[in-house]
Amino acid sequence: MIRKISFVALCITxxxxxxxxxxxxxxxKNLTGKLAYETSPQFTExxxxxxxxxxxxxxxxIFLHQAEARENLVIxxxxxxxxxxxxxxxxxxxxxxxxxxxxxxxxxxxxVHRLVNALNQQLLNSAGSETADGxxxxxxxxxxxxxxxxxxxxxxxxDTLSQNYNAGLxxxxxxxxxxxxxxxxxxxxxxxEQKITQLADPSMFSADTALALTNAVYxxxxxxxxxxxxxxxxxxxxxxxxxxxNVPTMHLSETxxxxxxxxxxxxxxxxxxxxxxxxxxxxxxxxxxxxxGLGQLWSTQANYPEMQPVxxxxxxxxxxxETPTMDLIPALNANGMRLAFTDDADFxxxxxxxxxYVSTIAQKAFIDVNEQGTEAxxxxxxxxxxxxxxxxxxxxxxxxxxFIFQIRDTATGAILFVGTVMQP
Length: 424
What we know:
The chain is of the alpha+beta class. 25% of the residues lie in helices and 31% in strands. The strands form 3 sheets. Strands 1, 2, 3, 4, 5, 6, 12, 13, 14 and 15 form a 10-stranded mixed beta sheet that branches.
C-alpha cells in the first residue's frame, strides 16, 4: 500500500493513528481487485495540467471554507481529493454529477482515476537523489479500502481501486466499532511515523457501515537553506486584532524568490533534494479584514507580480499546528456535493444498488516548521453506510365520532382527568 522513494533532505509524511492494544494489520484479511496496480499510467501533459488545475481550484474552495474560522489551520486538500476520487469511482447518476462538479473534474469518464495515479507517480519521481549532507527525501502515499464482513462489492469498483490507487480490500467487523477504529488507526500509524493519531473513532461505525476509504500522505523535508537555530529569538507578531505577541522567530539571509506589494508579501522557501517548496503568503491586515478577505486574495492571486530571486533577510516564526479531526462534509456541501450524504445518494457502482450513502468524511493534519525544515502529515477517511430501511406504511386512524379522554400519571396509574367529547 505504500509507494516510497528515498532521496535527500526532504520528506513527506502522512497521517497516523494509534490506540491501546491495536489489531495488527497482518491479522486483517486482504483482498484485491483483479487488476494489478499500474505503475506507469498513460497520460498527456495537457491532461495532467487539467487535473492539477482542478485539484488546485478544489483546494482553494476547501481552504477558504475551513479558514473562515480565522484560527490556526492545516488541511490537506490533496489527501481529501484522493479519498473523494476513490469514492467517486463508485458513484452514479446525480450523485456522481455533484461530486464531479464539487471536485472540479474536467471529464465525465473514468480517466480521472488513471490521471490521479499518473499525477501521484509524477510527484513520486520529481525529486533529486541526494543532497550534500546525505539527508533522505521521502514521499509516501497510501490508500486502503475497509469493507464489512459478508458484503458483496462490484468488481469494477474493486478493480479501479487496485489498478489506480493501489488500495487492497481489508475485511473488518464494523459491528465491533472499537476494534474497527483500532484497526484503521493502526494502519494510519504505520503509514505516518505515529505523527497523527485517532483518525477513526468508534462513533463513525455501526452495523450499518458498509465500507471506509482511507488515504494518508506524509511529508518531512529539510530546507535547502536552513535557518540558524542560534539566531532564533522572541520577536513581536501582530494578530488580526492589532494586538502583538512575542513568538520564537527564525532568521535567514539568502537569495529567495519573493514578491512584495502593498497588499501582499510572498516568499518561496525551497526544500533540499527536489522540487518541493513552501510558499509564504502574507496579506496586509486590511486585506485580511476586508469583506472579501481571503476569497479576493485566492481568486486574484494570478494577477500579482511573479516572484523574482532577491537577496533577502527573512524573519519568520516557527510554528506547529495539529488539528482535531475535521468534519469536511460542510465544506463539501458548500461546494455542491450534497446527495452523497443523503438517502438519495447513488453509489450503485460500489454495491450494485442504491442502498449506500456517505456518513463521514473527516481529516486530521499536522505540520511542524522549524529551523531545519518541515514535517507535515494528513489522513482522510470516508465512511459509507447502509441507508435505513423504508418504514412500514402507517396505520391510518381517524377520530370522527364521540370519544372518551383521560389524563393520567403513567408512573402510578392515577387518572387526573377523564371526560368525553360528544360534539367537538
